[in-house]
Specification:
By secondary structure, the protein is an alpha/beta fold. The protein is built from eight helices and four strands; from the N terminus they run αβαβαβαβαααα. It is globular, with a radius of gyration of 18 Å.
Length: 235
């Protein structure tokens, strides 16, 4: 069930039995020349819709553009919402849903730059909303996927595989590369970040992606998220 395709009557009937909503949040940013700019968004939207199908829960409108103010900001096609703006957007989005009866907010996240704004928005809402719970599932960070994902990195084998599984026509295999980059153990300004960025922006991976790995990553992600969703509702 997708909120934007439902009527008020349908939402009202749903809220009689569940107060949960699944919200996909991604980004529009460089993912090398091989993957689409919307890789993060395409992935979480597919995951969220599948999770919604098997759990019979509503999926909210996808938050397509995220916080990409560092590292990838200078690459062609990247769109970024500043962290402070994103925090306010998330607060308004969540508050609107809360006003009408939603209380369990399950965010399916596809972009690392969104994690801090999500947490900040929850912190600011903690004293204004009532009886509400928030959970963020960033698929590549799920502990149960650690061995499968194997530290694939940005635009690496893991994301290549996910997009191959979701829509293989979006992967331009002729542009897959074996670039690697060092990841600093500290935050840097964007001028200094240039020394850590590869030509196409990917991180530390041979990009040996496959449809088969994508299928495993996708299904495992949904399975773990389903458990997390049940825990959110039952705790």
């Amino acid at each position: 069930m997708e909120l934007m395709k439902m009527t008020m009557h349908e939402v009202n009937e749903y809220l009689k039995t569940s107060q949960t909503i699944i919200i996909p949040i991604g980004a529009i940013e460089e993912h090398s020349n091989a993957l689409p700019l919307g890789t993060d968004t395409i992935t979480v939207e597919a995951l969220a819709k599948r999770l919604g199908e098997i759990s019979n829960r509503i999926v909210g409108p996808t938050i397509n553009v995220g916080n990409c103010h560092s590292i990838t900001y200078d690459f062609l096609g990247t769109i970024s919402i500043s962290p402070s703006t994103l925090v306010n957007y998330l607060k308004d989005y969540t508050t609107s849903l809360h006003k009408h009866g939603f209380r369990n907010f399950f965010f399916v996240n596809g972009h690392g730059g969104n994690i801090a704004p999500l947490r900040c928005s929850f912190d600011e809402l903690a004293n204004t909303l009532t009886n509400s719970k928030f959970l963020v599932a960033s698929w590549w960070l799920l502990e149960d996927l650690k061995e499968l994902y194997d530290n694939s990195g940005h635009a690496g084998r893991g994301e290549v595989s996910m997009i191959m599984y979701i829509d293989k026509s979006l992967v331009k295999t002729e542009f897959l590369t074996e670039e690697k980059r060092e990841i600093p153990r500290y935050y840097v300004t964007n001028d200094l970040a240039k020394k850590y960025i590869t030509e196409t922006g990917i991180i530390n991976d041979s990009q040996e992606g496959s449809y088969e790995l994508g299928e495993k990553l996708f299904n495992a992600s949904v399975e773990v998220m389903l458990k997390l969703l049940k825990h959110l509702e039952e705790s």
